[in-house]
């Protein structure tokens, strides 16, 4: 996989705004050797468009894509209509967009410029940049890696986790059949998806979490008497007061629960996070993870030593953990492994059995209603982390809590609605990592050969479902009591009685 994303845009620019302004700006664009298409948005603009121009007037529906591959649509009585006929290219795409409407996009898409109507200097700078990138191309880092097999978004058409879809401000993530799709051309590297991904399927590359943890470990070992770590943007990092070590980053959403807990384990006694200007959805996700962290610490009898602080003054409100032995540095690219290692280091000796956590936490149990469960194993087949498994016998279902990320796939796939999530931390590391049988069923033996082939609950469910089906009446109802081999013979006319 390439470490960079390369754009090779052409020279077709879509200008959006009032016709009078666009026709003025169009002259400068032409002087720069670029080709234009106009979409005019002010009332009465249709009358101001000169004949022979690539121009339309109306209400803009949407612009999607990126540098060198934009598409646009306008509103109409029949629904959105593609603006491809305006393009200078045969396939109808636009290479650049200059938007003078004063709107706001959630994240700046490469090649999309939002410009004030009265700021000619900003317009000129944009044109110069466009000319240069049209000539030379444009390259940016690939900010993430993605391991599709770990993604818990969907399995076998069953919906699961959708956390990253709701936090991506760049609109770079879309649903897929078995996993999400992350468009590298749109990704701006804010790290919000890595914050909320429970399995670690998506990982930020710049910087890597393990690299930041190694950096922090070295700095905590220095004789500076730092008791706290402030995760803060670089421009105010120098304002960190005595006792606080500033870990500067422009991507605070890229460091979440597993990093904070690991930082406490390797020597910090409190953690503060400055959200800065991260998008609203990412702020909500950060707050949720802080709530989970505080519940964990308080459940263990500690102070809530992880919190939000935007200014040095707010740092005083975050309490200290007691002094304790420093754990060794954790080196792992696996998010769940890092989280479990940090928890094991922090838990130590405690009489607490379990700690309740807020809904949506990435830690917890799967509970089975044994009266409803038929042990069909549908939940086992969709589990993305192997937390659910057969422990050696097909009439048993085992659960390993340390592997569970609470994605909900097992809940959504269960035909009997017998599966439930319980957000919590089971404190004992050995109990969390040991498979536990959570459901068991009696097997049903084939009425012909005597081979166990299904659970008794599954056969009872099949009988109930097929009670009125014309294909399973009278003697043919007995087919449900036969294993696959005997059933095939019976349906082929072989006497298996």
What gap, in angstroms, lies between the N and C termini?
60 Å
Q: Largest sheet, described in full? A: 5 strands, parallel
What is the typical, i.e. mean, pLDDT? 89
Shape assignment: flat
What percentage of the residues does DSSP assign to strands (E)?
15-25%
* Unreliable stretches: none
Helix content: 25-40%
Instruction: Give me the number of helical elements.
Output: 14
Which oligomeric state applies?
Answer: single chain
What's the β-strand tally? 28
Helix/sheet category: alpha/beta
Radius of gyration (CA) equals 29 Å
Q: Please list the strands of the largest sheet in the order they lie side by side.
A: 4-3-2-8-9
Give the secondary structure arrangement, pairings included.
Blueprint: E1 4-7, E2 12-17, H1 19-31, E3 35-40, E4 55-57, E5 60-64, E6 71-74, E7 81-82, E8 96-99, E9 112-114, H2 120-136, E10 138-141, E11 144-146, E12 154-155, E13 158-159, H3 163-167, E14 173-174, E15 181-182, H4 192-196, E16 202-204, H5 209-220, E17 228-232, E18 244-248, H6 257-265, E19 271-273, H7 280-299, E20 306-308, H8 312-315, H9 335-347, E21 354-356, E22 364-368, H10 378-382, E23 388-389, E24 396-399, H11 409-413, E25 419-426, H12 429-433, E26 436-440, E27 443-445, E28 452-455, H13 456-465, H14 484-491
Parallel strand pairs: 2-3, 2-8, 3-4, 8-9, 17-18, 17-19, 19-20
Antiparallel strand pairs: 1-10, 5-6, 6-7, 11-16, 12-13, 14-15, 21-25, 22-25, 23-24, 24-26, 27-28
Helix pairs in contact: 6-9
């Amino acid at each position: 996989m390439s470490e960079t994303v390369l754009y090779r845009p052409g020279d077709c620019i879509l200008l959006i705004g009032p016709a009078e302004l666009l026709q003025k700006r169009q002259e400068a664009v032409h002087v720069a050797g670029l080709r234009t298409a106009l979409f005019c948005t002010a009332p009465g603009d249709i009358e101001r468009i000169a004949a022979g121009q690539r121009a339309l007037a109306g209400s803009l529906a949407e612009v999607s894509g990126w540098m060198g591959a934009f598409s646009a649509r306008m509103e109409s009585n029949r629904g959105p209509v593609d603006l491809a006929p305006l393009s200078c290219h045969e396939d109808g795409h636009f290479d650049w967009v200059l938007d003078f409407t004063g709107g706001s996009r959630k994240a700046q898409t490469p090649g999309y410029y939002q410009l004030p109507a009265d700021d000619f200097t900003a317009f000129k700078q944009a044109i110069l940049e466009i000319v240069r990138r049209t000539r030379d191309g444009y390259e940016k880092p690939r900010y993430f890696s993605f391991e599709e097999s770990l993604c818990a978004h969907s399995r076998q058409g069953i919906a699961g986790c959708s956390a990253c879809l709701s936090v991506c401000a760049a609109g770079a993530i879309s649903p897929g059949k078995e996993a999400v799709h992350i468009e590298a051309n749109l990704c701006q590297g804010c790290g919000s998806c890595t914050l909320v991904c429970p399995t670690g399927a998506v990982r930020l590359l710049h910087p890597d979490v393990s690299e930041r943890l190694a950096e922090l470990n070295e700095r905590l070992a220095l004789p500076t008497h730092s008791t706290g770590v402030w995760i803060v943007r670089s421009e105010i990092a120098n304002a960190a007061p005595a006792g606080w070590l500033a870990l500067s980053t422009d991507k605070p959403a890229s460091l979440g629960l597993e990093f904070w807990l690991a930082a406490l384990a390797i020597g910090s006694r409190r953690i503060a996070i400055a959200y800065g200007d991260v998008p609203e959805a990412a702020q909500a996700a950060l707050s949720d993870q802080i709530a989970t962290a505080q519940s964990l610490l308080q459940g263990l009898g500690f102070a809530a030593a992880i919190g939000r602080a935007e200014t040095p003054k707010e740092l005083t409100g975050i309490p200290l953990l007691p002094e304790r032995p420093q754990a060794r540095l954790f080196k792992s690219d696996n998010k769940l492994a890092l989280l479990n290692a940090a928890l094991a280091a922090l838990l130590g000796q405690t009489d607490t059995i379990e700690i309740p956590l807020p809904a949506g936490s990435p830690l917890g149990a799967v509970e089975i209603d044994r009266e409803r469960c038929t042990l069909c194993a549908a939940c086992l087949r969709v589990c993305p982390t192997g937390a659910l498994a057969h422990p050696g016998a097909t009439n048993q279902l085992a659960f390993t809590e340390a592997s569970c990320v609470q994605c909900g796939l097992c809940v959504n796939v269960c035909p009997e609605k017998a599966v439930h999530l319980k957000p919590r931390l089971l404190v004992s590391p050995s109990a969390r990592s040991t498979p536990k049988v959570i459901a068991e069923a009696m097997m049903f033996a084939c009425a012909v050969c005597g081979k166990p082939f299904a659970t008794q609950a599954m056969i009872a469910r099949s009988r109930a479902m097929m009670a009125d089906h014309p294909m399973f009446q009278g003697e043919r109802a007995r087919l449900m009591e036969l294993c696959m081999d005997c059933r095939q013979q019976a349906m082929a006319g072989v006497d298996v009685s």
